[in-house]
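INFO batch 0412 | record 1 of 1 | parsing
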Amino acid sequence: MHLKKIVVATLAMSSMASFAAEPGMKAQAELGFVLTDGNSETQSTNGKFNIERDRNNWRQKFNIEVLSASQNEVSSAERYATAFQTDRKLDDNDFIFGQLTYDDDRFSGFDYESTAAVGYGKTILENDVNLLTAQLGPGIRVSREEGAASESEGIVVTSLNYEYEISDTAKFGQRLDSDFGEDRIISTSITSLTSKIKDALAMKVSLTVKNNSDPALNEDLTRKEETDVETSVALVYSF
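INFO prediction complete | emitting tokens
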């Protein structure tokens, strides 16, 4: 199963390359795979694919994430997520955005969670080594817990993204996304360190912490853990 996912990821990287060849386009693919053997056998595969198009007054971003893990041949994690955002630039620093997301985490207790939002974004700081951007806007979240009807609620989405160029070959990143709703608050923090290996190839170490203030129920009616933590080491190819 993991081998098949790696093959699919490789094909996706190839097709993304054709899009990145267009003017104003760039793409990035991450692929990580961990296998341990001994007292317990564990396997983990994760992939992320990002495309960005930046032309004139418009900018679009699209990304896909896949995570799969198993222990002793029993699946322990499986997640598929996509996100799309389009920005209308007002000037060099300000923009209006529209955003769509879809998240299918097979071990979260939800069949799916999706959001749609619009709002205002701003580049707060930008120089040779620093980049800080922020976003804020209203939206709606639709989710369906396993065995239940879908529910929707109004939310406020916020995003803060910081990048720091440590050197010509190393970069630090910190991103914090939050969806504030009356019933649930979902926050995701991604801390990363990327080091270039050669030309377009780099290695990336990242720590992702996701918190859900009101998680789904287990089969025994207890609540699932509010916080999920994922540590990843992946190869990154930019084109």
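INFO post-check: Helices lie at 2-20.
INFO record closed
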